[in-house]
Amino acid sequence: MKIEIRADCKVCGGAITDNRYRTYCSAVCRNKFNNQKFKASQRQWQLDKFDKIASIPDPVNKCQCLICGKWYVQVGSHSYLRHGLTGRKYREKFELEVKRGIVPEWYRKLKGDITLDNETYLNLEKGTKYRFVKGDKKAGRYKRSQITIDRLRGLQ
User: Which 8-state DSSP code applies to residue 146?
Assistant: First the structure.
């Protein structure tokens, strides 16, 4: 084992003033170095753990990703992190409802209850002045899915 004794910090280049540290000026710099050193293996460990959990089918509590076939509570955030597709692009690609998130019903209810508890629903009223007016050229930029059209017509 090689012991390195330095005059300046390996991370920030500052002077090493404490006798307890041989390579770094402080525990903060030592931790920064170690975090960078093990970052890749830690990330891979987390991905393997999440993949193991997501590979268990659970149609009641989770939704299935149509790209990789794994099961998640929030497919939109998974599609962005793993497949590089935003939630909207994912829903357009598979012709799902564009304005409705891909989450299980229990999660949708939980988020609705949280919104009522912390009163963030009041922000909807504040945002009315920023909404599109019918006939506006900026409005209607996105094509509606067949599911949305059927729902609006009352077929579902």
Answer: H
